[in-house]
Amino acid sequence: RKEVEQDPGPFNVPEGATVAFNCTYSNSASQSFFWYRQDCRKEPKLLMSVYSSGNEDGRFTAQLNRASQYISLLIRDSKLSDSATYLCVTDSGTYKYIFGTGTRLKVLA
Amino acid sequence: EAGVAQSPRYKIIEKRQSVAFWCNPISGHATLYWYQQILGQGPKLLIQFQNNGVVDDSQLPKDRFSAERLKGVDSTLKIQPAKLEDSAVYLCASTRSRTTEAFFGQGTRLTVV
């Protein structure tokens, strides 16, 4: 089993739609969780950290479910500019940041 | 605040040649990572440094890859000899501590022909 697993997509959604991604992790000792965004041929950039109580940043909401060992990202009112690959990251309990394969999102006009 | 600097941006070499990549992390960041990202995949951790010591290099193909971080600042990653399957983007990242967000450089795109 991979340490971090994501559905690669692509998710094709119309503008204004709400879309959600899940990511599962295998190491129950994981402490730090992040969502990164990666545009085509660019480096990953932090979208948001994920906190135990869940957190929101504008149209983006991140949740952590420790019991089921998954994190989620919800994007409301999708914009064309949200089209990118979204990477799930955990520290795997050992302070080394492990990335998922990424979920591709394409927002359609 | 200056970001993570990497060079070169692009490199094309023939198989069996050697190549080196350079990374200068954000000032004050103790932890430095090298990742390999093959097209269509997520970044794969190759090696992690804490200051100038290696924390994890379990995924580094040590028969051909080497990395160092002298004086706990700049780092170099070397491949010798290169194989076709080494074609990828090599990303350097740094963090202030082992639990804070990682900042990435723009990466070096390596093509082995």
Features:
heterodimer, A: 109 residues, mainly beta, six-stranded mixed sheet, five-stranded antiparallel sheet, 11 strands, 0% helix, B: 113 residues, four-stranded antiparallel sheet, globular
Notes on the structure:
The complex is a heterodimer of chains A (109) and B (113). By secondary structure, chain A is mostly beta strands. Helices cover 0% and strands 50% of the residues of chain A. In chain A, the strands form 2 sheets. In chain A, strands 2, 4, 5, 9, 10 and 11 form a 6-stranded mixed sheet that branches. In chain A, strands 1-3-8-7-6 form a 5-stranded antiparallel sheet, with no helix packed on it. The radius of gyration of chain A is 13 Å and the shape is globular. With 113 residues, chain B is mainly beta. In chain B, strands 2, 4, 5, 6, 9, 10 and 11 form a 7-stranded mixed sheet that branches. Chain B is globular, with a radius of gyration of 13 Å. The interface between A and B is medium-sized, with 23 and 24 residues.
Structural class of chain B: mainly beta
SS-based class of chain A: mainly beta
Largest interface: A-B, 23 and 24 residues
Q: Provide the gyration radius of chain B in Å.
A: 13 Å
Number of continuous helical runs of chain A? 0
Described by the principal axes of the CA atoms, the overall outline of chain B is globular
Radius of gyration of chain A: 13 Å
Tell me the β content of chain A. Answer: over 45%
Fraction of residues in helix of chain A = under 10%
Q: What is the average per-residue confidence, as pLDDT of chain B, rounded to a whole number? A: 94
